[in-house]
Design brief:
This protein has helices spanning 36-49, 69-81, 108-121, 154-164, 184-211, 224-228, 241-254, and strands spanning 2-7, 11-18, 21-29, 59-64, 86-87, 97-98, 125-130, 133-139, 144-152, 216-221, 236-237. With 261 residues, it is an alpha/beta fold.
Length: 261
């Protein structure tokens, strides 16, 4: 079995694969100050609660956008699972040609998304991740990572409104009944869902023109399904896109093909 760990700024997604099937998933909060023992206790509890024996895990792969957490999780997996995890970063084979000016600036989660989406849908693609930030990644018809867009995430924007606007409440994000809100909460929900949906459609049009193609648009992340229903451009929602990409990257590096170093 393979343990795949996708560390975001707010949450960590953890998956266990049996061959190419995702059999268990969990989400926990990202703790920048947690020790390897604290993460270890959480991991062992999750595995035990799902009936997975530690000895059944024979591989591990990590994508992390919070640099201080990476070595802690490496130590966690080494200490509690007895494995040296593959950490997605420079020098790891992904099969994606990155055209960013500085490829090291591209988050490993975005590369994992690209790997999984190219495998499932084929290029050209636009991949949208609704997380702490809302990111758009453009993949050319040749399967090249061209670059993208970074905007605030929905929850990030909501928290900013609550913190900076004295009369606005902290609200739960849900689908608004109408665009014209009749209360502050309804108005904020409309602004978040319909506003982000409009941003998505507008940016997809702009990116598509620059790409000179009609890319397939796939979304992932916490609010993907809610926003996707209000857009014209998103064609598929993949909740576990990063985990699937991590599995594929692990397999590329564990089983290199002819001519691979």
């Amino acid at each position: 079995m393979l343990l795949a760990v996708d560390v975001g700024n707010t949450r960590i997604s953890i998956g266990v694969y049996s061959e190419d099937s995702l059999v268990h998933t969990w989400r926990v909060s990202t703790g920048r100050d947690k020790t390897e023992d604290e993460y270890g206790m959480v991991l062992l509890s999750l595995l035990e609660g799902s009936g997975v024996e530690v000895a059944e895990i024979n591989g591990a792969v990590i994508a992390c956008v919070v640099p201080p957490v990476t070595p802690v999780l490496e130590k966690t997996i080494s200490k509690y699972l007895g494995l040296d995890p593959l950490v997605v970063g420079p020098g790891v084979k992904t099969g994606i040609n990155i055209k960013y000016e500085n490829p090291k600036e591209v988050g490993p989660d975005r590369i994992a998304h690209a790997v999984a989406a190219v495998k499932k849908y084929g290029p050209p693609l636009i991949i949208i991740d609704f997380g702490t930030a809302t990111t758009f990644d453009a993949i050319s018809a040749k399967g090249e990572y061209l670059g993208g867009v970074i905007a605030p995430g929905i929850q990030t924007a909501l928290e900013a409104l609550f913190e900076k606007a004295a009369r606005l409440p902290r609200i739960e994000l849900s689908r608004p009944r109408r665009a014209i809100g009749k209360t502050s909460a309804e108005s904020m929900q409309s602004g978040m869902i319909y506003g982000f949906a409009g941003m998505v459609d507008g940016l997809v049009r702009r990116l598509s023109r620059e790409m000179g193609s009609q890319p397939f648009v796939v979304a992932t992340g916490d609010s993907a399904d809610m926003v996707a229903r209000e857009t014209e451009s998103i064609k598929a929602v993949e909740p576990f896109l990063a985990l699937e990409g991590l599995r594929l990257i692990y397999e590329m590096n564990a089983n290199p093909g002819p001519g691979d170093s």
